[in-house]
Amino acid sequence: MQLSTASWPEIEAYLSRSRGIVIPIGSHEQHGPNGLIGTDAICPEVIAQEAGDEDGFLVGPTFNVGQAQHHMAFPGSVTLRPSTMIAALQDWISSFTRHGFTRLYFFNGHGGNIATINAAFSEAYAPWSLRGEPAPFACKLVNWWELRGVGEVCKRRFPVGEGSHATASEVSVTYYKYPGFQKRVSMDPKIAPNGPIRDAADYRARFPDGRIGSDPSQATVAAGAEIVGVARAALIADVHRFFDDAG
Ligand code: NI
Question: pTM higher than 0.85, yes or no?
């Protein structure tokens, strides 16, 4: 069930049987020569929407711009400052809790978002902690690539050149969702270099085509379909554990 295509009476009815919502969260940033700029938003969105449609849990709108300051030397990247993102997440959390949601499962597609999302959770809990009252809601952060079984599939599909940015796996997931937007681009070197992430100019100097450690020319629709299938089942199980207060 998708919030974007539901009516308010349908959400009111949903709240009478569940107080949980899954919110995909990602980024719009360059993903190398053949990766879609929306990759980190698309991956959690497609997995969450397929899982929500199969299982019946509610999937919120995708929080689709995040922490991408280090990608800003590449055209098309969009970023929030950490303080802006924390403030925006407060308003998203307050909107959902105002309607009675008590379990907010943030399903993330971008490693650069992790610290800021956790800071936003601390901001959300802080007023309750300082008042000495229990918070009437709980937030959880899960990265799609950490769901049970997903890492094994990615490693089997791409034993060499998976990398850490513009990975073969994440590009495969987007090609599965949008097969008409596959881009066949020759890349040199075949596997991109590794190194630290600092500011935007330093990033572009170290990683001229945007990739880190990866060979995403290996990406296929079939690999994306397998990854989404494994992730979808694992997400349903993990969401139920959280919604049922078991972790
Ligand atoms: Ni990514």
Answer: yes
Q: How remote is the CA of residue 109 from the centroid of ligand 1, in Å?
A: 7
Q: Where are the beta strands (DSSP E) in 49-179?
A: 58-59, 103-108, 138-143
Place of tokens 């597609």: 109
CA atoms within 13 A on the CB side of 240: 9
Nearest-angstrom CA–CA distance, 60 and 2: 6
Dihedral angle, C-alpha 17, 20, 21, 22, nearest 10 °: -130
Which residues lie at CB < 5 A from ion ligand 1?
Answer: 39-40, 170
Q: What is the pLDDT of residues 80-109, one digit of tens each?
A: 999 999 999 999 999 999 999 999 999 999
d(CA 69, CA 113): 11
The pLDDT of residue 246 is 67
Q: 52: CA distance to ligand 1 center in Å? A: 22
3-state secondary structure 31-46: CCCCCCCCHHHHHHHH
For domain 3-244, the CATH superfamily is Creatininase (3.40.50.10310)
Q: For residue 167, how far is its CA from the centre of ligand 1 (angstroms)?
A: 7
Query: Could you say which DSSP state residue 180 is in?
Result: G
Per-residue confidence (pLDDT) for residue 245, from 0 to 100: 84
| Domain segments of the chain as ranges | 3-244
**Number of C-alpha atoms within 13 angstroms, CB side, residue 35?**
34
SS3 state at 229: helix
pLDDT digits (tens, 9 = 90+) for 5-44: 999 999 999 999 999 999 999 999 999 999 999 999 999 9
Closest CA to 150 of 211, 218, 68, 232: 232
Distance of CA 138 to the CA centre of its chain: 19
